[in-house]
């Protein structure tokens, strides 16, 4: 029997990284036969978000217009909370107040997805809580352990961690962080990072590198390519110079290898790199690349030498060995799995490690023997399977890690269980939300159909 309406999943995002890491989920929800995404952009990085989502074929349902430059954190938070409240009450009417409705049978969002650690994500989580919409947190459980660093992201993560009913954690270590803070393990799910899904999708598009100095790479499918990036503050000066000197040395010992170095725009970095490598024919210096060609370059590489954080998670997704030009890394799971090797910035040490990887196929293969702990490109599939299970009680998705329990998530979200003849159902508990019934005069509410989603995406 068809359900009366297709439950909608709010997806709230505001910044470019959020758009990148959420588009794989939005794509799957757009194609889903029974769930529908309602994408709300806060308007912070308006054009960048629109560009990312448009290239991924994702539609934005509403823009809250919170894009004024120079907006303080409190103003931003207030604007997102009230903007989302207006949007939700305008589209769906007031929150269920003294009325109960089954998870699948009331026209009210089944969940509100927020991502990561921005202030707009934590504001959206608070607003969703007040509106009695269960919050699903994507990229949950990252912690530095120092509430003020990074500011305000670390506290935003913790706040969302308190509010969320369902936590999609990239790794097992992220779940452990949540459990240490008192989150029931049954409300967590190890999914991998959706950023890896986005990266693989982007690399597969094979968009042109689109700059003259990389034209040779369009046609060259045989040369081995080493990609090098360096920009961390602790490496400024001698560290970056040593990384560049190591590259120069490797061009002498490995004349068949080409090196591509997207140079960070910071003058402290760029001057050092250019001074060491400008005149080396096997080295292509280029400015920072757009995300999709950079994903393609990573996938094309034989080896990556980097001090970047994100790239330590990304390159192993293509089975590419990563030498980390730092003395420590917060990506310890990658070092333990063997997808990363810490080499510091000492020139000779970098040269020795790179030589081993370039010359010894067995050493190269060792890097890709273990799965990338940060994701296999199917994080969004797992999250959608989890949402489906929560909303429709479909079979429990295959777990990655300890798994989660539907009733725990729903009960935390304020649904209570009743056992009906056709099996258990979960209904919203009656709680006074304090919302006056909204004045809906002039507001267009999407018509509900008895047999599936409406044709258009109405909405505000
Ligand atoms: N990146 C990019 N173009 C580049 C270099 C990096 O799109 O030329 C991407 C990279 O894939 C990663 C993100 O930028 O997802 C951040 O990497 P970065 O090295 O700037 O910094 P970190 O992760 O250390 O903050």
TrEMBL record:
Keywords associated with the record: Isomerase
| Ranges of residues in domain UDP-N-acetylglucosamine 2-epimerase | 103-388
Superkingdom to which the source organism belongs: Bacteria
Q: Which residues form a coiled coil?
A: none
- In short, the EC number is 5.1.3.14
Kindly give the PANTHER family that the UniProt entry links to this protein.
Answer: UDP-N-ACETYLGLUCOSAMINE 2-EPIMERASE
Q: Which family does it belong to?
A: Belongs to the UDP-N-acetylglucosamine 2-epimerase family.
- What protein does this entry describe? UDP-N-acetylglucosamine 2-epimerase (non-hydrolyzing)
Which species is listed as the source? Answer: Isoptericola cucumis
What gene is it encoded by?
wecB
